[in-house]
Amino acid sequence: MALEYEALRAELATNRQFIFERPVLILGVSLAGLLGIEQSPAAPLEQLGLLFVVSLFFQSVLFFNLWFTLNRLRSSSRILAYLVVVHEGPRRRSWRGWETSLLDYRRWRLDHREEARKIEKNHLDGEQYDSRRYYGPIFSFHCVLSGLASIAIAVLAIARIPPGPVRLAVLGFALLLVSAFVAIAGWQWQPRRVRNAIEAEVEIWKKVLAQRGRPKGLARVGAPAQAPAAGGQ
Q: How big is the CA angle at 15 (ends 12 and 17), to the nearest 5 degrees?
């Protein structure tokens, strides 16, 4: 069990890497692209087309990164809850290794979808106890970056396109980009969804392990420790 514990702790450290650096890197690459467009000898309308491409790329990568960040947070919550219940609990629980336990976890969630949703919903409100508070600023930062990309399109459109239907269409496109990003991100990946996620996962893991009945895979005293892979989140 000791080897499994260390492997899962290492995976937790990996999940926390580059959480803050990735959006800054995305912003830097996009700014470099904008500067290249501004200094290019292309005609104004061609520059606007290039700006559309860069903005769509920027929004798409930003969108993916926010989803990926939340996915890693949920994975970390699942692993931490497993460590709390199985490795650090008051008594050893039906230990069969991480991979087997994760398979049981997924089966339980599939068979008890409504119960899992109810548990998670019960932990959405109230004081936030775990360390997921930093996700709120990260979420807001992504939304601000999405807005800045749309503002860049709007500013260039106003500066390069005379008043008329084309300018209105471009401004509408810019507004649509940021609105779609904020709407989808706010609905699917809002910070409230990870509030007290560890506590919710602890409750779910206890139900998963309780369903096993009598322990079948407890390590015998003196038996060699298993070294399971830490993947499969």
A: 115
